[in-house]
Structures are given as C-alpha cells and as structure tokens.
C-alpha cells in the first residue's frame, strides 16, 4: 500500500526566522575591506551609474519644482508635483515587493529605467521647444513616480545579488555616500543650469543619466550574480511577509524606529525653511547653507558607517537616540554656531541610523522574501516623510521653527528610550558604569555578567 504524499508546507515554512549570521569584524575594517564591494564587476557598473543617476535625479527634482512654479505661480501645484513622485510608493510599494521576489530584479530595474529615460526625454523636449504645459509635467511626474515605486524594492534587494551577503554592509555605505554626493552636486548644478539656460537642460541631463543606467544594467554579467530563489505566484504573499517581519525583532524594531524618525525627524526642508525664514532670518542664502551642512554631515556619516565593526539592533536604537538628541540641540537659538554645528551632527547621526537600519533589515531577511520586506522599509520611509511633511509643517507654521526642531528630536529620542527599555527587560540587560575604566565607562551587560 502506497502512503499518500505529505501535505505541502505552509508558505511561511520556506522562510525560517533564523538567517545566516550577520557579518561582524573582529577589528575596525581596513579601507580595502570597506571598499571590497568594488571588487564585483557588476557592482562597479551599478555604482558608476548611481553616481550620475543620483546627481541627475536631484537636478531634475529641483528643475521640475521650479518649472511648475514658473508655469502656474502656485506653490500648491508644486506640492502636487512632489506628491505625484512619491505617492505611488505608498500605493504600489507592497505589490512592488512581491514583484521583486517573483521576477529577476535586474530586468525589473532595466524596464523601469527605460520608462524613466523615455519620460524624462519627452519632458525635456517639450520644455526646450516651448510646448510644455503644466499637465505634461504632472503626468510625467506621475509616470516616473510609478516607475520609481516599482523599481525601489528590486534596486535595494539587487545589491546583495551583485556583492553577496558578506560585502553587503560596505555596499550599502558606498551607495549612501554616492547618493549624498549627488545631493550635494545636483541642486547646485541645476541652479546654475536653470539660471543660465532654463529648466529643460536639467531635465535633459537626467534623461541622459537614466539612459546611462540602462546601458550599465544591460552590460552586467549574469553569471557573476548571486542566484536568488524566485517565488511562484500564490495568494497571501504580502501577509506572509508581514508575519515574517513581525516575528523578527531586528526587523520589527528597526521599522518602528524608522517610523518615528521618518515622520518627525526626516522633514528637514520644512525645518530648515522655518529656521531660515523665521528663527534666524537668513533667507534663501541661509537655507542653502543649512542644506549643504546637513548633506556634508550625511557624507561624513556614510564614511563612518563603512568603518563600523558590528551591526546590531542596539546600534540602530542608539543612533536613533543620538539623532533625536542632536536635533533637540538644534532647537536652541542662543548661539548661531551651535545651530550650524548641530546641523552637521544631524546629517551624521541620521545617515548612521539609516544605514544601520537598512543593512540590519536586509541582512536579517532571507533572500526569497527580501524584496517584500525591503518594500515595507521603503513604504515606512516614504510614507512617514509624506505624513510628517504635513504634521511638521503645521507645527512650524503655528508654533515656530524652534518648537518644530524640539518635537523632531523629542519623539525619536523617546521612541529609542522605550524600545531600549523593552529590549533590556526582554533580554535581561542592564547598564554598568565603571569609574575605574574610563574606556569602558558605560557598557551594556547581562544581569548575570
């Protein structure tokens, strides 16, 4: 008698909670180890295209906002254009994560970059020929927003396919450094081009950089990619990923900390505009200076992140607390140099938190479900900033920039404190103070140790 075949396993059984160990260095990484990801040919192509794509993307964002303002004279329409670029992430983020786990991520990126190239090219042509209307701009902003929403989870998860798990931390730091370099150069270059030649040329540059990304992705060597299992079509894959993320403390608490910071602490344009216009009265010049100082701090934070030896949940919570404290310091208007120094500190701690949270989330996730989990990270990040822009804008308008900075710091700091207490109670940890050893003045140990 033949026994019946065993029932198929529940989908969640394919993704055990335990993952492979997160890489930890027993010493501070050397520069060679920090840049080890560059040893992968595919990643070199990717980073090269990212350097130009980030700069071009920042140029286009500034140019599109200015173009809408020129065409309508309505700041609300500028807000609508911004919303069309980011709202698709909230609407399509979870589905994009499922798509990332089902389809080859390289080809998802290739398709979305082709769409972005065509959309930006059409808009640049309309602007340069003088045939552009505001509905053209809004439509193309929506198209590129949808393309970016679909690409986001695949782009983030694809990094591990290019470099492998053991070099992923360094790759994430290099990505952040490159992105923030684009944030420093892009707006400045776009401002020069807009003043000299108009908005169309900044948008045309972005079309050229997305075309460069298409070429770079097409030239990658498929046989050098780390194979990742693709998931068949089935029902409940989003719910499955939600259960998976909730069961893993490293992912769950990283997302909670990210939500607090993205809603209240990542709306720097609102806070900096309030400081430039109201608190210090420095106007547009001051606003540009403040943004540059934050970007400089983020660049320094990316460099520091690449030199870290370990990656733990308490690091994510600690950097979140540090970000909150530094932001609270920026609320004090008693000494202007202190405010400027705090802005650099905000950039450093924000980048250290973001890199630790993203790396821990990715490294704590099995490859077969990584696209969906990363999509949650992106949705929390983008959705939090969208909601926080309204909340923090209202606080700054009603109560002034000082209180807005204070709230932006208090909420993350308190959230980090609460998470720290919960983790300490659950793992029976305590803080030990040793006055005899200044190098280990404060440390976290087990209650039995």
UniProtKB/TrEMBL annotation:
Protein localization: Cell membrane
Ranges of residues in domain Major facilitator superfamily (MFS) profile: 37-427
UniProt GO MF annotations: transmembrane transporter activity
Record field: transmembrane: 45-69, 75-95, 107-128, 134-150, 171-195, 201-220, 253-275, 287-304, 316-332, 338-361, 373-396, 402-424
Membrane topology reported for the UniProt record: Multi-pass membrane protein
InterPro entries xrefs: MFS_dom, MFS_trans_sf, TM_effector
Chief subcellular location: membrane
Gene Ontology cellular component terms for the protein in this record: plasma membrane
Signal peptide: none
Annotated Gene3D superfamilies: MFS general substrate transporter like domains (1.20.1250.20)
Annotated PANTHER family: INTEGRAL MEMBRANE EFFLUX PROTEIN-RELATED, STAPHYLOFERRIN A TRANSPORTER
Protein name: MFS transporter
Organism name: Protaetiibacter intestinalis
């Amino acid at each position: 008698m033949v026994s019946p075949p065993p029932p198929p396993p529940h989908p969640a059984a394919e993704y055990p909670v335990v993952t492979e160990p997160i890489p930890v260095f027993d010493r501070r990484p050397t520069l060679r180890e920090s840049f080890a990801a560059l040893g992968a040919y595919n990643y070199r192509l990717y980073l090269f295209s990212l350097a130009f794509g980030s700069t071009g993307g920042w140029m286009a964002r500034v140019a599109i906002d200015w173009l809408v303002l020129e065409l309508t004279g309505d700041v609300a329409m500028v807000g609508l254009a911004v919303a069309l670029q980011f709202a698709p992430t909230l609407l399509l983020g979870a589905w994009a994560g499922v798509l990332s786990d089902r389809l080859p991520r390289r080809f998802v990126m290739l398709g979305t970059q082709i769409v972005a190239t065509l959309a930006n090219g059409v808009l640049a042509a309309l602007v340069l020929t003088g045939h552009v209307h505001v509905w053209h701009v809004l439509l193309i902003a929506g198209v590129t927003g949808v393309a970016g929403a679909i690409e986001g989870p695949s782009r983030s998860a694809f990094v591990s396919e290019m470099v492998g798990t053991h070099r992923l931390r360094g790759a994430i730091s290099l990505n952040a450094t490159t992105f923030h370099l684009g944030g420093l150069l892009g707006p400045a270059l776009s401002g020069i081009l807009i003043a000299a030649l108009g908005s169309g040329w900044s948008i045309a540059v972005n079309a050229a950089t997305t075309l460069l990304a298409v070429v770079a992705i097409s030239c990658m060597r498929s046989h050098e990619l780390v194979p990742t299992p693709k998931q068949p079509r089935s029902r409940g894959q989003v719910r499955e990923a939600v259960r998976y993320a909730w069961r893993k403390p490293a992912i769950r608490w990283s997302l909670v900390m990210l939500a607090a910071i993205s809603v209240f602490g990542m709306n720097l344009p609102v806070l900096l505009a309030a400081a430039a216009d109201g608190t210090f009265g420095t106007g547009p010049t001051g606003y540009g200076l403040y943004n540059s100082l934050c970007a400089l701090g983020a660049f320094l934070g990316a460099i520091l992140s690449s030199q870290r030896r370990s990656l733990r949940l308490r690091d994510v919570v600690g950097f979140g607390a540090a970000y909150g404290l530094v932001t609270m310091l920026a609320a004090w208007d008693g000494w202007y140099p202190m405010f400027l120094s705090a802005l650099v500190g905000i950039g450093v701690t924000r980048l250290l938190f973001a890199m630790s949270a993203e790396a821990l989330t990715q490294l704590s996730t099995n490859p077969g479900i990584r696209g969906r989990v990363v999509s949650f990270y992106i949705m929390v990040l983008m959705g939090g900033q969208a909601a926080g822009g309204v909340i923090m804008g209202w606080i700054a308008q009603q109560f002034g920039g000082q209180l807005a900075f204070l709230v932006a710091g208090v909420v993350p700091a308190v959230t980090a404190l609460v998470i720290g207490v919960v983790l300490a109670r659950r793992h029976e940890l305590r803080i030990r103070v040793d006055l005899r050893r200044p190098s280990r003045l404060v440390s976290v140990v087990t209650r039995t140790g």
